[in-house]
Amino acid sequence: MPYQSLHVSMRGMTLEVPQKYIDKFDYVVSDVRRRLAAMANNMDESIGVIIERLHSRGMLDNSVVIFVSDNGGDPLQHVGNGGSNYPLRGTKLGLFEGGIRVPAFIWSPLLNKSGYVSNALIHVTDLLPTILDAINGTGIRNESNIYVITN
């Protein structure tokens, strides 16, 4: 389920989010940062609803939940979207860690390891080998599905 609401960087574009979410962050001084926090909170609640529905239908035990971003935020004033990559240097569209290092996780009761933290380099377009290894998947191995970078 892709979420594109936080994926904005157009000059002069106001981040749209229901007022009830904005009101939760009235202590945030910057309007654009308050709206960005509200959008993240809205996304979090939406993902929670999906997880709850999977659970209530007995589907969560056979599901793999993956959360990943494609790039860091673009906090530059000219786009005004309120993003921040602190303490990392760089932004979206750049090669420094602020542009490429993003949070990600995989959760499932099917995983062989839990609480495992990896610092391996991955890319959102190449998750299949990671998923297969995480669940001891077999049957889809070929030279295009192997790790190229292992550190």
From TrEMBL:
SUPFAM superfamilies: Alkaline phosphatase-like. It comes from Oppiella nova. It comes from the Eukaryota. This is Sulfatase N-terminal domain-containing protein. The keyword Flavoprotein does not apply. GO terms for molecular function: metal ion binding; sulfuric ester hydrolase activity. Keywords: Calcium, Glycoprotein, Metal-binding. Belongs to the sulfatase family. InterPro entries: Alkaline_phosphatase_core_sf, ARSB, Sulfatase_N. It holds the Pfam family Sulfatase. Residues 16-135 form the Sulfatase N-terminal domain. Transmembrane segments: none annotated. Its cofactor is Ca(2+).
